[in-house]
Amino acid sequence: MPLVHFFETSFGRTSEREIIIIEAVSEGVSGWGEITAGENPFYNEEWTDSAWLIARDYAMPRILGREIESALEVDALTRHIRGHNMARGGVEAAVWDLQARRSGNPLWREIGGGARREIPCGVSIGIQNSVEELIGKVECELAAGYQRIKIKIKPGWDVDVIRRVRERFPAIRLMGDANSAYTLADAARLKELDEFWLMMIEQPLAHDDIIDHAALQPRLATPICLDECIRSAHHGEQAIRMKACGIINIKLGRVGGFGEAKRLHDVCEAAGVPVWCGGMLESGIGRAHNIALSTLPNFTLPGDVSASKRYWKRDIISPEVEVTPAGTIRISDQPGFGYEIDRDFLNHVTVQEDAVA
């Protein structure tokens, strides 16, 4: 699926997405999940081709043909697969959606959510060709009602860029996302961002690091938000105990599905650490799962859950995800994740298909 506009982070530019969709079938009912791995192993070690093999050859055979009482059991059945959380999580998400549809419940209720009827929405804006182009995009997103703006940063595209944005928009909720582009040696540079009263700086240091973040956080007034390095509830516990962050981003695929996402959510809630839902350029299926996740009570900050039209000329769900003028998404009471699959378009964009039984 080609993106409406390229999306650039500190580790590269994406113009189109290759997305793996999982359909789980039981007694004529289908549930749907999405594997959120990128096309290359840059965000983490997973990528589309590896996730396809892990899901098909390892995760699925461990659950097919079994009678299970709850989708929570999928995590236990696949947990001994080391890493590959996105592949495992996409399969688990499909089973959660299947369970919700079989029970006639909306997915948000099935996972124990429902703390809010509308979720607050923010947007993530990638690195642009110029600061002027970036400011134009910020203006567009604010006009659409989005409640928080996240800007991707990297060395050479950070302090001066944020300064220009803050000068133009002095009162907006603003944050920077580094995607692990810095080291602890850059602490003084990151400290310069304090003057712009950002909501947070997301994952400034290494993708697998908690210890250096714990050394950096006391040097900054701005809260650190951890993303890539938090792959489990246990990692969340460690980061909070070490005071490595003030906020945690929960991505469904990164932690391996709803079961672990809920456990991480509960750890953060008990510690008074707010969370928000991060995005991975998902299609409407993954986006709908993120909406359900964001109804859990500790998702108190606007997440990267935005309208389908920001990314796709046409999405694979119907209706497409829409954002209200107030910058919120209303949750659906329909069974499952709340949208229908646009099967004609899904078939049109499908380039490979396999069945495991």
Offer a quick outline of the entry.
By secondary structure, the protein is an alpha/beta fold. The chain has helices at residues 48-59, 72-78, 85-103, 107-110, 131-143, 159-168, 187-191, 211-216, 233-241, 252-255, 258-271, 284-293, 343-349, and strands spanning 2-9, 12-16, 20-26, 29-35, 118-120, 122-125, 148-152, 174-177, 201-202, 224-226, 247-250, 275-277, 317-318, 328-330, 340-341.
Can you offer a commentary on this structure?
- There is one protein chain.
- The protein is of the alpha/beta class.
- The protein has two domains: about 1-105 and about 345-350, Enolase-like, N-terminal domain (Enolase-like, domain 1, 2-Layer Sandwich); about 120-340, Enolase-like C-terminal domain (TIM Barrel).
- The chain is built from 13 helices and 15 strands.
- The chain has helices at about 50-60, 70-80, 85-105, 105-110, 130-145, 160-170, 185-190, 210-215, 235-240, 250-255, 260-270, 285-295, 345-350, and strands spanning about 1-10, 10-15, 20-25, 30-35, 120, 120-125, 150, 175, 200, 225, 245-250, 275, 315-320, 330, 340.
- Helix 6 links the parallel strand 7 and strand 8 (about 175).
- Helix 1 (about 50-60) crosses helix 3, helix 5 (about 130-145) packs across helix 6 and helix 9 packs parallel to helix 11.
- It is globular and about 60 Å long.
- The model has no long low-confidence stretch (mean pLDDT about 95).
